[in-house]
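New here. Invent one.

***
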Amino acid sequence: MNPLSKHVFILGAGSSKHYGFPTGKELIQDISENSKARFSQYIKANPTTPEKLRYYDNRVSVFSNLLSAVVDTISIDWFLNHHNSFTDIGIPALIASIINYEFHFMHIKDPQRINSDWYNYLFSTLIKGCKTFEDFSTALTNNISFITFNYDRSLEHFLFANLSSIFIDKSEEEICSVINQIPIIHVYGKIGYLPWEKGQGANESNIIPYGEAKPEDFFKYGFKNVDSISLIYDDRIQQDTKIRATQLIAQSKYIYFLGFGYDEINLSNIGLPQLLEQKRVYGTAFNCTPNEISVIEYLLQNKKHPKSVINSFLEISNYSCYDLLRNYYHPYK
């Protein structure tokens, strides 16, 4: 891992949209509408006692009905924070939902995403001129890092799949050695590990193959990996995760907020806005009005020093993630 990454990408739910993943609103809607059916599939494939079946069947029904009443106004994180007695079913339902989106991405091709794939744009920009495996390794690990608030593994999957396709003569271990040098911090955890991540804490119980899980197993993985993500605000971020994230930001020169919602709690959990001073900061505000953009700019200002130099380096734009990088990302700066 390179601790001196000059370019730090801070990712929110919108940054995975091109890979078939939902926005926060779409996620809670999917959980509300489809958790009952997914749980039924799980029960058919994994019979249990009548008592346990009645208990969980009732829990899923009550949970789904409560969600349906607030689906247009809050996030799943907010809901579970204020209804934490439902985390025993809510977190597995969340994991099952994300696994479902991974499954659909791998099995249902969407040509539209080709036109907005910022993963591919960044990857292609970084590796221009590279000829050898060592060139690729240097280009990818030299000056970029990622801090993501997402639970999905689409970024890791993209990197592994593309490097494996380019270097078919390299072993899985050699491909992983490159990816492992790229800082990718999941602030609140992720739904599980990918099969090739065995050296990073993965084991047989917390590995979920990307897009290969069967629908009847979505909830099974959800129950097995319930501790892999954090939802409750009071204990959401582990101290070592916070230290790593704040160090990356402090040592960087360029910050890119991609698909980010600019929630004040999320900002605070990684030392923002204080750590943004004297950096070049760019961010997406897709489909936002000028007034809404001004609110975002206010949230990214250091309130203790409102006239600080940060104001000269802040650019929040009504761009998609792809278009923001096309306009502002420069790998040689």
Notes: The first helix runs from residue 24 to 45. The mean pLDDT is 89. The radius of gyration is 20 Å.
